[in-house]
Amino acid sequence: MNMDQEKSGERLALRKVVGAFFITAMISAPTLAADLVCAYGDGQTFLKWNEINDPSVRYQIYRGTQPFQVDQASQTVLVGDAELLGDAAFASGLNKRRSGRPFLTPFFPMTKGEGLYVHTIRQDTATAYYAVFPNRGGQRLESVEEVSFGCAVSNERVAKTAPFLQENVGGVRYFTHWGAHYDTAAQKAFSNTPSSPFTFGIEGDLSKTGQPLFVGFHPRRADPTKTPEFEVKPGSFDNPAEDEIVYYPEDFNTNLLDACGGDQTQPSCERGPVEFVNDFWYGYPDRLGIRNCSAQELPRNSNGQVIIRDYSRQRVLHIIGWLKGLLIKTDGELKPVIDPNRVYAGGYSMGGIGALFTAVASPEVFAAVMASAPKFNFAASYSEQSDQWDIGETERCYGDHLWGDMPSSTVFVDPDGLWIYDRLNLNYLVDHARADLPIMYVINGKNDNVVSWDEKPEFYQTMEANKQLGYFFWDQRVKSGKTHTPVGGEWDPMIDFSTIYAYRKNQSYPVFTNVQGADNPGSGSPMDGDAVGVLNGYLTWDTHTIVDTPVRFRMTLKLRSLRKCVRFNPERECLQMGRANAPSSIVTADVSLRGLQSFEAEPKGVYLYKATNPDNPSEIYQSGLAKADPNGLITIEGLQIRDAGVALFLGKADDGSRRP
User: What contacts 233, CB < 8 A, 6 or more positions away?
Assistant: First the structure.
């Protein structure tokens, strides 16, 4: 018997099994939800059926471990509640989709008028049986004539789910992935609704190995499935272009928008979360938009708390893991498409928020991040400058609906019990970080009336106090209302995502603090400090000459010039790109060493260092002792970094044979 005959025999046997327990239900009628088929793959079972031609009908999905009849449905598990499913008018057993793209699966084609439900497996099962019941007006239709055919699936297994390619348009591959509303042993929940579909784009050549991965978080109101190109693309300006994979995630939950559209006639905070479709790349409560339209209205658990789940973040991390797992056979061996040490994130506005918070929450994944016009602290309310996150303003209303009333309540927590507005505060996250955080490039405007300038100097201070590396730029740009129009963008030329491609997770790097002659961001008022400035921007290092062994460390530090707009037209559009240089040819700073790969840094250890001419090691500029803090972070105080560079050598001070 050949393989095709064998498969045909298996299909016939499956039809006989299905027919045995649903034979009485197979009555042809115009309103029948019929021809149910199902198939398992990568931790999920896909069900498809012909929908009843009635937009008021919804569907319930039942699953059992043994064949069942209509009157025995109550003995099985209801895996899809009709209240949570879409209706026939939208050609799906689940949600309307903002992208409007068709669903394609590797198991069966989908056409108009067919319903689809995707069930993520919770536990291994030898054989599972499914049935789909129509529901009209909140009542399940249990008559034999109105029940769909059943289907059976063998060997369901818990596994990581995989996305499916939908189409290739303009060099961007669009995929759809479905996620459960519950955790499994293989992955976290993706949404608070079952079988929720999310579409994302992948740009680049997936047939090459060892490429950097850039995660491009889209700004609010943008749809990456229609316009994946946002403000700045990698591979421009001074940096050489290279092969890369760009991943454009989707941050939409249409169920929230459908259930909680709000009343436009009411004041902002009273009309409901009109833009629930975005969650600022974090998440929301598990019952939000299902039973209630505001976190304030949700029932509490036994501790009186509402749990806010990081659904969107988990989806992004899941797809990053999927991409890192793609392998290509090269020279007889399998090699990864993605270099796991070169994963980066970036975005503008809400996209910048997603990039920063995701990277700080998962420092083991990202090497560096670049963000333009992000917010740092969702709990902050300031008096110096009015913005849309002030209490009673539009953005604050969205936040309160998603995560609860910020000023007065601490009952809204993440799954670990942390107050949600600590989880949504980069100052708190950096203060409590126990790892080397990704290198940050961040650009903000002093006249930004959406995410405000007030909070920015505080975060700069937090990063410095914790000796984490951030390059922070500010200028006179404005981001106003829905247009998000930058005005006065002196540092626009620095918004170049390829800049961060130089950094790697498997390479050590310096952190610059206490920089003498640094620009002054002020105290938080737009009128304080320097109107245009940068922190740490002129200080860098040579990533190609690092020596990092258990007993010896070497790194060349140097100054650099920055790209800057130096001439504008009356509309503040840039007419001329120029360069900005360090205030002097020698800049003094404290230098801490993070990301050490081999050098043995001991808590409270003492080390010898010397700083020399990179071209003539016998010419010593400085030497002395460097100390490590209780966590083993070594800092060289008052190091003079020169325009022409300085070679820093480090060795243990307690062993004469280990000289720098």
Answer: 246, 497
What pLDDT, in 10s, does the model give residues 580-616?
999 999 999 999 999 999 999 999 999 999 999 999 9
Q: 10 Å Cβ neighbour count for 385? A: 18
DSSP H or E stretch at residue 429: helix 426-431
For 331, residues 6+ apart whose C-beta sits below 8 A from its C-beta are none
| φ/ψ bin of 572: left (φ > 0), alpha (ψ from -120 to 50), beta (otherwise) | left
**Alpha-carbon span 426 to 432, nearest angstrom:** 10
CA distance 459 to 444: 12
| CA–CA separation, 552 and 609 (whole Å) | 10
Strands 306-309 and 412-413, bridge-based pairing: parallel
Dist CA 646 CA 132 (whole Å): 71
User: What is the distance between the alpha carbons of residues 83 and 136, in angstroms, rounded to a whole number?
Assistant: 11
Q: Contact at 8 Å (CB) between 488 and 476?
A: yes
Beta strands 368-372 and 439-445 are: parallel
Residue ranges in the chain modelled with pLDDT below 50: 1-32, 83-84, 86-100, 144-147, 227-238, 264-267, 273-274, 481-484, 656-658
Query: Residue 59 has which token pair?
Result: 């569907």
Question: Can you say how many angstroms the Cα of residue 629 is from the centroid of all Cα atoms in its chain?
Answer: 32
pLDDT tens digits along 449-464: 888 899 999 999 999 9
Give phi and psi for 96, each to the nearest 5: -70, 150
Q: Which of 362, 357, 217, 186 is nearest to 282 (CA)?
A: 357
Question: Partners of 284 in the beta sheet?
Answer: 309
Q: If you ran DSSP here, which 8-state letter would residue 480 be given?
A: -
Closest CA to 46 of 144, 151, 169: 151
Cα angle for residues 363, 366, 369 (degrees, 5° grid): 105
C-alpha distances out from residue 177 to 279, 440, 482, Å: 18, 30, 30
Sequence-ordered strand ranges (E) for 8-85: 37-41, 44-50, 57-64, 77-80
Give the burial class of 615: count Cβ atoms within 10 A of its Cβ; 0-12 exposed, 13-18 middle, 19 or more buried. Answer: exposed
Gap between the Cα atoms of 620 and 608, Å rounded: 13
- What is the distance between the alpha carbons of residues 222 and 433, in angstroms, rounded to a whole number? 31
The DSSP line for 387-422 is: -TTSTTSHHHHHHHHHH--TTT---EE-TTS-BHHH
Whether pTM > 0.70 for this model: the answer is: yes
Amino acid at 290: I
* Closest C-alpha among 126, 465, 179 to residue 315: 179
